[in-house]
């Protein structure tokens, strides 16, 4: 009995053999090259090592909370790093622009300019907390800034 | 020359290649197919095109690299692909219109999940494994379509499930998790598991009311052990392909990891847990065979304790 022949008489065709070995190769190699190309995937979830992030809170003149996404300070994606293979950038759809990225600590002036451009004439108060390692065991607030953003 | 002598002279690779195409009874293959179809239908209830109005980014799927954006953003096609998936999966589960229903299920699932991915500002990795596993099973029904027809009435005793079906199932699950570990090492280096990242993620969107999350936030060493442990378990998943003895430990560790992620981050991966239980955990096969008397039946059909089931690659 040859290698491809079963006891029941089934003989593995060339297509079956090619199908099996192509599957073995493609599901290993394509993800390593392309990272994400559904249904091929090297799950990149949580693959970035991060040391800090900024937490923002925004209020208007009357003290009411303003949504972070209104002023471009929202966290778009807390766990999937963007694609960078084959000239691709990001994801299937692009999230609205934000200053809120892991390991990015913009200056107060940069935040002020960014928020001012989206404040629609409102006077806003922004509080930014930088969260990172505070000692050998814990993380917490390593820097805090609260500042006003004047209308343009 | 006796067949046994011939087999002993073959190299391990030749023996592996030969055993890949050796068929066994289809009981577990059919049970795992039903579980897979249930998972595919289940995850398809979680899809949407909510972000279709956002600016298009990059193609993130094979179909997204071929089809125009207008087609991939079509709500009508999205709904049709979901309904097609459900109907074709039902037909396949009942072995109606096979192998066509198998390929239609795979195609509808892949199109539906690709459209979902193409219109998301992130990824949803729980959709990957069902696509790969559906392909394997569709190929099985394609290659053994005549044998399936011939075995009507005596399906469970017919040797119509080649060893590559369970093997590629194990391979897909193990490779998926193995690559997740490789990506962490690749992008974050060995320092990826330093514990700070895990603490930050939990601080950001974890459930602080849970005891484990509080413990992780209070103690970097605990965070480091858990984070490094996840990377090590994922990276070692490749071993499940070639070392049946470690498969149980790896499968249980991956299930534990998913349960931990769900409790700490609130990210559900229950569908992947089902696939790990069915395709990677050896106990499931034994339980199914014991419940149905399948193993005993297969040995009776073999006439002797042979390699038909027990020694085929990936089935240990």
Report a brief summary of the structure.
The complex is a heterodimer of chains A (152) and B (316). With 152 residues, chain A is of the alpha+beta class. Chain A has helices at 14-34, 108-116, and strands at residues 36-37, 40-41, 52-60, 65-66, 124-133, 139-149.
The major sheet of chain A is characterized as: 4 strands, antiparallel
What is the total number of structural domains of chain B?
A: 2
Helix run count of chain B: 17
Percent strand of chain B: under 5%
Element string of chain A (H = helix, E = strand): HEEEEHEE
Keywords summarizing the entry:
heterodimer, A: 152 residues, alpha+beta, 2 domains, two-stranded antiparallel ribbon, 2 helices, 6 strands, 24% strand, disordered N terminus, B: 316 residues, mainly alpha, two-stranded antiparallel sheet, 17 helices
Description of the molecule:
The complex is a heterodimer of chains A (152) and B (316). By secondary structure, chain A is α+β, with helices and mostly antiparallel strands. In chain A, 20% of the residues lie in helices and 24% in strands. Chain A has two domains: 33 residues, no CATH class; 98 residues, no CATH class. Chain A has a four-stranded antiparallel sheet with strand order 4-3-5-6, with helices on one face. In chain A, strands 1-2 form a two-stranded antiparallel sheet. Chain A is elongated, with a radius of gyration of 25 Å. The N and C termini of chain A lie far apart (84 Å). Chain B is mainly alpha-helical and 316 residues long. Helix content of chain B is 68%, strand content 1%. Chain B is built from 17 helices and two strands. Chain B starts with a helix and ends in a 14-residue tail after the last helix. Chains A and B meet through α1, β1, β2, β3 and β5 of A and α2, α6, α7, α9 and α10 of B.
């Amino acid at each position: 009995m040859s290698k491809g022949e079963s006891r029941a008489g089934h003989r593995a065709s060339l297509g079956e053999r090619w199908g099996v070995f192509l599957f073995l190769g493609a599901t290993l190699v394509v993800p390593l090259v392309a990272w994400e190309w559904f249904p091929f995937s090297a799950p990149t979830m949580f693959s970035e090592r991060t040391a800090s992030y900024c937490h923002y809170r925004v209020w208007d003149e009357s003290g009411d909370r303003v949504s972070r996404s209104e002023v471009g300070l929202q966290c778009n994606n807390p766990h999937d790093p963007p694609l960078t293979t084959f000239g691709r950038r990001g994801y299937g759809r692009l999230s609205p622009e934000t200053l809120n990225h892991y390991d990015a600590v913009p200056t107060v002036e940069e935040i002020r300019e960014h928020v001012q451009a989206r404040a629609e004439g409102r006077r806003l108060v922004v509080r930014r907390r930088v969260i990172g390692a505070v000692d050998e065991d814990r993380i917490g607030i390593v820097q805090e800034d609260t500042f006003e953003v004047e209308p343009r | 020359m006796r067949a046994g002598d011939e087999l002993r002279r073959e190299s391990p690779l030749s023996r592996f290649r030969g055993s890949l195409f050796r068929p066994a009874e289809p009981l577990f293959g059919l049970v795992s197919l039903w579980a897979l179809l249930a998972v595919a239908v289940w995850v398809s209830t979680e899809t949407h095109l909510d972000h279709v109005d956002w600016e298009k980014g990059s193609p993130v799927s094979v179909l997204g690299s071929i089809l125009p954006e207008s087609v991939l953003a079509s709500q009508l096609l999205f709904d049709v692909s979901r309904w097609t998936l459900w109907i074709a999966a039902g037909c396949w589960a009942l072995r109606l219109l096979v192998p066509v229903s198998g390929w239609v299920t795979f195609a509808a699932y892949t199109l539906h999940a690709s459209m979902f991915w193409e219109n998301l500002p992130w990824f949803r990795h729980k959709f990957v494994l069902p696509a790969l596993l559906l392909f394997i099973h569709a190929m099985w029904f394609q290659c053994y379509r005549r044998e399936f027809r011939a075995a009507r009435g005596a399906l469970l005793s017919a040797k119509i499930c080649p060893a590559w079906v369970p093997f590629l199932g194990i391979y897909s699950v193990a490779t998926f998790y193995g690559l997740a570990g490789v990506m962490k090492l690749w992008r974050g280096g060995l320092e990826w598991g330093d514990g700070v990242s895990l603490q930050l993620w939990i601080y950001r969107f974890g459930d602080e009311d849970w005891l484990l999350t509080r413990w992780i936030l209070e103690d970097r060493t605990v965070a480091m052990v858990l984070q490094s442990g996840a990377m090590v378990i994922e990276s070692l998943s490749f071993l499940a392909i070639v070392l049946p003895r470690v498969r149980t430990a790896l499968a249980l560790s991956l299930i534990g990891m998913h349960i931990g992620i769900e409790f700490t981050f609130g990210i559900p991966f229950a569908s992947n847990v089902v696939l790990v239980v069915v395709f990677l955990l050896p106990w499931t096969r034994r339980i199914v065979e014991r419940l149905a008397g399948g193993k005993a039946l297969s040995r009776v059909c073999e006439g002797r304790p042979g390699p038909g089931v027990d020694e085929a690659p990936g089935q240990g």
